[in-house]
TrEMBL record:
Naturally occurring in which organism (per UniProt): Undibacterium luofuense
Protein name as it appears in the record: D-alanine--D-alanine ligase
A GO biological-process term: regulation of cell shape
Residues engaged in binding Mg(2+) 2: E275, N277
Gene name of the record: ddl
Catalytic activity annotation: 2 D-alanine + ATP = D-alanyl-D-alanine + ADP + phosphate + H(+)
Residues the entry annotates as binding Mg(2+) 1: D261, E275
Amino acid sequence: MTAFDPASFGKVGVLFGGRSAEREVSIMSGSGVLNALRSKGIDAHPFDPAERNIAELADEKFDSVFIALHGRYGEDGAIQGVLEHLNIPYTGSGVMASSVGMDKIFTKRIWQTHNISTPAYAVLTPDSDLGQVVHDLGLPLIAKPPHEGSTIGITKVTSQEQMQEAYSLAARFDDVVLAEQFIAGRELTVPVLGTGKDARALPIIEIVAPDGNYDYQNKYFTDDTRYLCPAPLSDELTAAIQDMVVKAYRSLDCEGWARIDVLLRETDQQPFLLEINTSPGMTGHSLVPMAARAIGMSYEDLCVEILRTARLKIRSENM
């Protein structure tokens, strides 16, 4: 990593906490980032939008901010729009890419237009014929809210009788529900760093969860899940998946960093992209730091590398 002068970053805000269902995870992520930046001599300060008026961001006179918020209001373009208005450079993707990336349905639509493989799906509303959805997608299938992460509100549906309950659970979090074809196979995730032509995939991680259940508990709070990094794949398949992921990242106009989840179908080794996280976790169990370590980049250096990319995305004629 290139040498740097910590003072050159000025005063840095680390945004974490927030009001989403992923608040608890965001606090863990943001605390880690805050400590990492401070360990590098950077003048970093915490800011929790759930505990402080968002207008105070302007009063703090931050030179840039590191977004460690997850979910609604932090990963969906909302805070990015505020920061653009306040003229405060920030990490990660811009307003549009964040908003689209947070919406799993729109993400899939864009990927389909770019011929990027993603599971077949249906959008469910209160008027949907759930029996027809089961017929079209087959069983098992996955039902989930399209604007949540961290496996919140998700159900693996294995019978017609489960559909209404699965729909009702996901509908607690969203106005519409995403029903998705279930892909039986290996669970992978691929972090990406950079922007545009400089975007590059980090090593692929394979996730081996207890009984194949990579839920909220196994994701953040237990040590029972195994992570294989780099994933034990052939060089050819590794390169193909990384190329697909970078193409998917660019198709959404993402910037800075992100992580894309992939399922590798066991019958034919066909990869299917599930979703993108434009503000990935940075906890002790998180996967972007794990992939970075595999190429010799420490957690602290990763945080600095991401902070380097902080910028405004909307051009202003007054700048």
